[in-house]
Amino acid sequence: MKNILIDIVLQRLVIGIFILFGVSILITLGVEALAGDVCSAILGQAAEPATVAACQAKLGLNDPMHVRYGNWLVNAIQGDFGTSLANNREVSEQIGKRLGNTLYLALTTAMFAVPIGILLGVIAALYRNSAIDHIISTTTLTTISSPEFFLAYILMAIFAVKLGWLPAISNVSPSMGFLERLQASALPVATLALITVAHMMRMTRASIVSLLASPYIEMAKLKGLTPGRIIIKHALPNAWSPIIQVVVLNLAYMVVGVVVIEVVFVYPGLGALIVDAVLNRDLPVIQATAMVFAAAYVLLFILADMLSMLANPRLRHRR
Predict the structure, then answer these.
(1) What are the backbone angles phi and psi of residue 104, rounded to the nearest 5°?
(2) How many whole angstroms separate alpha carbon 72 and alpha carbon 32?
(3) Among 77, 245, 251, 259, fewest CB within 10 Å belongs to which?
(4) Partners of 90 in the β-ladder
(5) pTM of the model
(6) Are 174 and 98 in contact (CB under 8 A)?
(7) Could you report the per-residue pLDDT of 252-308, keeping only the tens digit for each?
(8) Within the chain, where are the H helices?
(9) Tell me: the pLDDT tens digits for 87-140?
(10) Where are the alpha helices (DSSP H) in 60-90?
(11) DSSP for residue 58
């Protein structure tokens, strides 16, 4: 079993390296396709052509795209992501300061969303086709169908503007205590939690309901076990594999999909950093941030596969 898991992880890592390489190329081509460059963004539309040309020459923007990409790739492999074209600061330094905030947002959201999502899924399966099931399912479907920014502005209008309980702008700093930081980031955490709880609840419910027609569940019913005991003792343990998949993939979403949420609440994370970099056409920052997002996604996909195979040994023989 151990050798099989190691082989699968190595295969996934090799695929992940090719994915990262492809992402870096797509990001570079996408930024190059945008109108203007970092010099035009910094100096403005009224800048003299000679001033813009001098800026481009200083930053090496006159070199062919493949030359600049090749130089960046060689340095990135060695752990050097270069300096920002917009402010001449080390890219690694900027990402390091923001990465902790993004991870805090994702992990705090997971701390609330994972148990609530699984619990609601179990309740919906336990009382399936009842009023409780319909209320939970309708609410989660509405949440999934709503755009992230719409939910964010609704929560902001209610809890920040109307009630005044929470700040609309999430100013967090390393000097804050846990409770103070939690209050400052409560609205972005709540927005992410609403979306992820809905996904986890629906997957948990679907997995358990599909197992309730299994022969061993029918046998448990014939023995006179209560529905709650049947679900918790017999159905839920066999539903862990797909639940683990959706939990880990939602963790990936919480790390990678925070861009809109961070921009809405002016949260100082990687999402806001990459948006600012795109506006300034700051290619090194965009490339490095995109690599962090892509690497997080790849690693969490591998983790999801590993945990699913540990929870369900039959999956090891399908690879």
Answers:
(1) -60, -45
(2) 14
(3) 77
(4) 83
(5) 0.78
(6) no
(7) 777 777 788 888 888 888 888 888 888 888 888 888 888 888 888 888 878 877 777
(8) 2-33, 38-43, 49-59, 65-77, 91-126, 131-145, 148-155, 178-184, 186-211, 215-222, 227-229, 236-238, 240-256, 259-264, 270-279, 283-311
(9) 778 888 888 888 888 888 888 888 888 889 888 888 888 788 888 888 888 888
(10) 65-77
(11) H
| Alpha carbon distance 189, 192 (integer Å) | 5
CA 282 to CA 193: how far, in whole Å?
Answer: 31
The mean predicted confidence, pLDDT, of the chain is 79
Domain limits, the chain: 91-318
Q: Domain 91-318 in CATH: superfamily?
A: MetI-like (1.10.3720.10)
**31: which 2 tokens?**
């930024």
The DSSP annotation for 235-274 comes to IHHHTHHHHHHHHHHHHHHHHHTTHHHHHHTT--SHHHHH
- Among residues 103, 100, 101, 95, which one has the least CA distance to residue 251? 103
